[in-house]
Design brief:
The protein is an alpha/beta fold and 273 residues long. The chain has one domain: Ribokinase (UDP-N-acetylmuramoyl-L-alanine:D-glutamate ligase). The chain has eight helices and eleven strands. The strands form two sheets. It has a nine-stranded mixed sheet with strand order 3-2-1-4-5-8-9-10-11, with helices on both faces. Helix 1 links the parallel strand 1 and strand 2. The longest helix is centred in the last third of the chain and has 22 residues. It is globular and about 55 Å long.
Length: 273
């Protein structure tokens, strides 16, 4: 039977990110993606101006009506949350549909490049820390892993490879989830992802591409979720997600695409088959 995953995050009309990224990725992997939009944006927040509709009041209806319809899920995946209120509504949804058999993957979006996003304050980060602690799998970038663990970003940035590796291993060891992927930092001409799987630690590398584009974390998390829900080992799911993103990043660089538009992943969905 086809696996079914609920994805709780926003959807943007422009910018290949969030639900606009998760829907095609999970679908091509043979997983039914059931979108639960937390907000609707005209364009993702990296643009100079945007308008949005907060869907937080609707999340309670998703929860109650899906329960009424007898919905069961094989996985729940969460991404960008705009407020503590959205986190609380997502928590209620998860409480309603979480079982011992299904997978909860949390992408704890809070910042990047050593800086917390301006829209988030200490209260939100504390709430996200508690929210992510309940997950089976989390996919923070290095900045977010530092926020979750209270680690100074300087303990990682600019340090020697051995120091970075030990910092990553230590952060994974103090975080509650059994499986953790710390995503997408650069080391020389390589891009790296660190994976923690029930205390087993490994770093996977692929060639780096110049530039930075929005939505790559969303694409990675969706591909990872699809593999794990289908019962794949963490290593295989991480490697497939990296193999999928690499040519899309190369195309974005070759075409000179602006970072706010995301990467042209559509032609590379076949890498997920």
């Amino acid at each position: 039977m086809m696996k079914r995953v609920a994805v709780l995050q926003d959807i943007s009309g422009l910018g290949r990110c969030s639900l606009a990224a998760a829907l095609p990725v999970l679908s091509v992997m043979g997983v039914q993606c059931c979108p639960v939009p937390t907000a609707v944006y005209t364009n993702q927040t990296g643009f100079s101006r945007f308008a949005f509709l907060d869907c937080e009041p609707l999340l309670g209806d998703f929860t109650s009506l899906w329960q009424e319809h007898g919905v069961t899920l094989d996985g729940i995946c969460t991404g960008f949350m705009a407020s503590v209120e959205q986190l609380e509504a997502a928590r209620a949804f998860i409480d309603a549909f979480r079982t011992h058999e299904n997978l909860l993957l949390v992408d704890p979006v809070m910042g990047d490049d050593g800086t917390r996003y301006p829209c988030f304050d200490d209260e939100f980060c504390d709430a996200m820390r508690a929210f992510a602690a309940r997950a089976d799998v989390i996919t923070p970038n290095v900045t977010e892993a530092c926020i979750l663990t209270g680690t100074p970003y300087e303990a990682f940035a600019g340090q020697a490879e051995a120091v970075q590796r030990e910092t990553l291993r230590r952060m994974c060891g103090v975080l509650p989830p059994e499986r953790i992927v710390i995503t997408g930092w650069r080391r020389g001409n390589r891009v790296c992802n660190a994976a923690w799987d029930r205390s087993a630690f490994a770093i996977y590398e692929s060639p780096a591409v110049g530039g930075s584009w929005s939505g790559t974390g969303d694409l990675f998390a969706a591909a990872l979720c699809g593999g794990l829900v289908k019962g794949e080992p963490l290593e295989i799911s991480v490697r497939r997600a990296m193999r999928f993103l690499e040519p899309a990043l190369r195309d974005a660089a070759r075409l000179g695409l602006p970072g706010v538009g995301g990467v042209p992943f559509e032609m590379h969905l076949k890498e997920l088959l």
